[in-house]
Amino acid sequence: MGKRYLIDSNTLIEFQAKKLPANGQRFVSKTIDEEFNISIISKIEVLGYPSVEQETNDFITLATVFELDKNVAGKTIELRRQHKIKLPDAIIAATALTNGLDLISRNISDFKNIAGLNVIDPWNL
Fold it and tell me: pTM for the full model?
């Protein structure tokens, strides 16, 4: 099996709205076709808007959602102690790290300096 990915909230929203550049759109589409992984935080962020359409809800139900378990919680605490990082971003990073996943996110700066975390920007492929 090749690389495995966790898709961040911003990428999910931009992908579904077809706002990614063509290369990014193809990359994310291929990733979703092979293994559609998101964090519980991304599910909450994407579906938490009052105006979410049924199509978005249906799309998110196709994903494997990585829950907040004790390993992710422990890694999140470690990341928050080591870095100035928002809690949702720390949970997403910890989810990727504890599950051996690369992260697809436009917000590279949110995850800078986190050892072992490989972040791919779909806007810069």
Answer: 0.94
